Amino acid sequence: MKQLAIVVGIVVLAIVMGISYRNGLIARDEAVKANWSQIDTQLQRRADLIPNLVNTVKGYASHEKEIFTKIADARSRLLQAQGPAAKAEASGDLNHWLGRLLAVAENYPNLKASENFIRLQDELAGTENRIAVARTRYNDGVRDFNAAVRGFPGSLFAPGLGLKLAEYYQPPEEQKLQTPPTVQF
Fold first, then answer.
1. Which of 30, 39, 49, 112 keeps 20 to 30 A from 22, CA to CA?
2. Is there a contact between 135 and 2 (Cβ–Cβ < 8 Å)?
3. What is the pTM of this model?
4. C-alpha dihedral sign at 149, 25, 139, 135
5. Which ranges of 106-183 would DSSP assign to H, the alpha helix?
6. d(Cα 153, Cα 18) in Å, to the nearest integer?
7. Average pLDDT, stretch 51-71?
């Protein structure tokens, strides 16, 4: 009788631990999805700010049509991109053209002094910071989730739940190689 109680206790404990671990995997998967949603929201916010920035610069530098076209194309690709790799690549392309736009703005002192332009630049900088924070949180969640899925007993539960390793959000290779701008006074 005592042995039966011990066996039943071990089985019940194993079942409770299995359910707990399974629920933990599901919670981690949901956390990764929520963190991705934050990145997506901030990328959308940045994409929404760009037309205002472009229109402000257009008023001062209407002859820079190529940059305006490239920014519009890059913005469209970002909005249509699906998944971390595609979003990261499209975001990198958009960053490149935004950098060119801001470089053009340097040639127009009246534009640089425009209150609207300054406000839009501040909004864009704040959004870039939010994207960086959201990307870090997302990648931390992906790391935790992937470790749980790959480890034991997660590797037993993940296939049955349809869980696969999550993809990290990383900038494209050409964006990683860029050196930061030098500030001189």
1. 39
2. no
3. 0.78
4. positive
5. 109-113, 115-150, 154-161, 173-176
6. 8
7. 85
